[in-house]
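User: structure tokens for Non-haem bromoperoxidase BPO-A2, please.
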Amino acid sequence: MELRAGEVDFHYVEHGTGRPVVVLHGAGVDHREAEACFEPILGGGAGLRRIYPDLPGTGHTTAPETLRSADDVLDALLRFADAVTGSDFLLVGHSAGGYYAQAMAARRADRVAGLALVCPLLPGLRDIPAPRLVAGPGDLGDEDFRGYFVVQTPDMLDRYERFVAPAAALVDPAAARRIGERWQLSADDAPPYPGPTTIVAGRLDSTVGYAAATDLFARCPHATLAVVDDAGHALPHEQPELLRALLAEWLTRVARDRTNPTRTSTPNTSWFANERSEKGTL
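Assistant: Done. Predicted tokens:
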């Protein structure tokens, strides 16, 4: 399916009917990886319309010359989400998709009903562990596979070759360079998203680590955090059943939040303003 949002022609696929949930993939891949990882989880129950876009410059979504930074990509994604959902919606993001998802949720807190971040790319990355092999012979696949997966079994290699590697041919290299030079979002005054949030990180993630995810968790007032042992940046592939359980718990909290009229959607954020003034931009 195609949808024009601003100057970007978005390609996306969707499944099901009901409350929209927009699922954002990471850098260097396209919607096929997110669909392969999250559709078996989100598609298991009724009531969710699952939307998987290609991010600008990946898959079949355009990245015009006017997109020159992460801020421009964020603006395009906000336009897309507003247009494709037409109502309140949920957000799920993996890796760079998680970076954009948390920023979208902060800016659309009145419309985003829930936020789930898996191995999110975040500013302030620190304490990133060295690559480590958890399972497998260690000589399967190419260097990219071995740098992404810590579970290096034939099954994981098959998933990599079907859902990850093919996307490389569709990445717009010029757009990747432009946006990569200004990949950090500009600071603004939006407090962290106040609604039901789940953050999942791999303890062995040698791409983004897990420490920045714990920092974000400390700032989110209604968040669950899981740091998963024996999982790396490819956690959605390597730990699908655990991820299923964590997202099921998140969806339960989203449903509870929707039906609880006493739950405030906007918490007291004076502490956030104080922290910004004391420490500078987060």
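User: Anything notable?

Assistant: Strands lie at 2-5, 8-15, 19-24, 48-53, 89-94, 112-118, 197-202, 223-228.
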